[in-house]
Structures are given as C-alpha cells and as structure tokens.
Amino acid sequence: MMNNYLPFHQTLHPRHSKNPKRNHNNTDRNEVVENVTCHNNDNLSEILVNVGFVYRIQVEKHLIASIGDESYLVLPKGALVPEHVLIVPLAHFSSLAVASQQTVDEIGKYITALKTLFKDKVNLWLSTTNAMQKVIIFERNIKLSKVSTHMHLQVVPIDKEVPDEDCYNVFENDARNVLGDQIEVRRFAPEVDLQSAIIEAGFAESQYLLAEMPDGGKIIHEIPEHFIKQTLAMGRRPCSVLLNAPEREDWRSCALSVDEEKKLTASFKTNFKPLDFTN
C-alpha cells in the first residue's frame, strides 16, 4: 500500500510555505495543525522524526506541543527522557547556519522558555530519573540522502548534579572515538550564539555537530562525509551517557505506543503552557 504522507514543510498551508516571514494569528496556527500531516498512522512504515536519524521532518500531529510563527515544538519518537523535545523551523532550512533571523530569534525564545521550565521544575511530571535542571541542545547536520535535510535542534534536560566540564568531555570524547583523535573540536564562550558558532568555525557549508552545554558554552566539530553512517547516534549517545542510561542510545529501544505518546504530549503541553509565548 502506498504511503500517503509528505515532509512537514510540504504539508503546510500555502500561506506558511510561501511566506514564512509573515506573522500568523491563532487561526493560522490551527490551520497548520490540521495540515501538519497527511498520512494514515496505521499505514506509517517510516518514522523519520526519531532523533536516531532524520532525512527530512515528518511529524505525527499528536506529538506537536506548540506552534509559533517561525517554528514549532514536537516530541520525538523514542525520546531519551520524557522531557526530550525538538525545535523545528516551519520554513525549510537545511541547517541552523542558513536559517533566517526571524527563525533564529524565535528558536531562541523557545530555548529560553524550555530552560526556565526545566530549571523551575524540581520533579518533572513524567521523569524516571532524578530532577533534571540542566539543558543540552544539539544539532547534527548531516546529509543522509538526496533529499535535503530539514534542520532541527534537540533539547535534552539532564540531572543538575552533572558537572559542566563532564558534559564537554563526554561530547568531545565521543567525537574522537567516532571520528578519530585528529578531529578538531572547537569550544566557544557562552556569549557566542549557536548560529555564530557555526559561522565562526567555518562550517556554514559543511556537515557538523553543534552542541550547547549547560553553562551556555558551545562545542562544534566537522563531520567528514565518509563517516556519515558512524555518526547517526552522535549527540544522542553522549546525552545517554550523561543521563546514566547508555542503553537508551538507540531510539528504537525507547519507542512508545501512540496512546503513551499522546499522554506524554498532553503532559508536556500542560506544563509548558505558562511559558508558551505562542498562546
């Protein structure tokens, strides 16, 4: 049977896909939700919003938590922890390096809101781990097919007791373990924003892994083309180590039923609502 679904950015209402810079009202956001998917969940043979590998963004409507003017929040398939969330642009951008200023600004608003949420929540609503009050953000920009990758940022809260330097070390060691000791991992100070870190590192037209550590500092390194298959878990794997849950490196081991996903999304939306600037 033929799959009847499209990448998210191809299923939007025409007003959004043709003019992503305009401001949308609440009615427009509702139209986005109604147009966010055109597939039958029972016939879904390929899930690509799974944070294990993303060729292009394909979204099941029940996982969407918030829709802004330029971007949206969606819970991933096979989340590392229940509070794991993706920030995805509405317009198509292959990487954060080429995202519009309006999109970058709104992504920043979502990041600020999520950091506040995780900092204020001492015991998160569905967490099976200790209180998570620190945040790691990462983008893995790799091209896995002839179809242009749709960028997204992954936001993963971790236990507040994990030392900041451990976060740097785990990510840097993972890069060297996968890519070799010769790989250069660059660090940037907290005052350098995510997009600027990519540009200053000279990776605007390259494949890369970019991560923001809990103290706001950034690390970035190039991903050589011949290492693509070995890098599918980069970003996720060091987060699983920092969460003391290495068995959750593979998203498939963390998959939930649709009913469980719906409950997870509803809980996230309830807790995020006071901070959701799109309301």
Overall geometric form: globular
Structural class: alpha+beta
Gyration radius (Cα, Å) is 18 Å
Unreliable residue stretches: 1-57, 122-130
* Largest β sheet strand count, sense and barrel closure: 8 strands, antiparallel
Succession of helices and strands = HHEEEHEEHEHEEHH
> Strand sequence of the main sheet, in spatial order?
1-2-3-5-4-7-8-6
CATH topology: HIT family, subunit A
CATH homologous superfamily classification: HIT-like
Output mean pLDDT: 77
How many individual β-strands?
Answer: 8
Model description:
With 279 residues, the chain is an alpha+beta fold. The chain has helices at 14-18, 26-35, 101-120, 164-179, 194-201, 236-242, 258-272, and strands spanning 64-67, 71-74, 85-89, 132-141, 153-159, 186-188, 208-212, 218-222. The protein has one domain: HIT family, subunit A, CATH 3.30.428.10. Helix 4 (164-179) packs across helix 6. The longest helix has 20 residues, at 101-120.
List keywords for this structure.
alpha+beta, HIT family, subunit A, eight-stranded antiparallel beta sheet, 7 helices
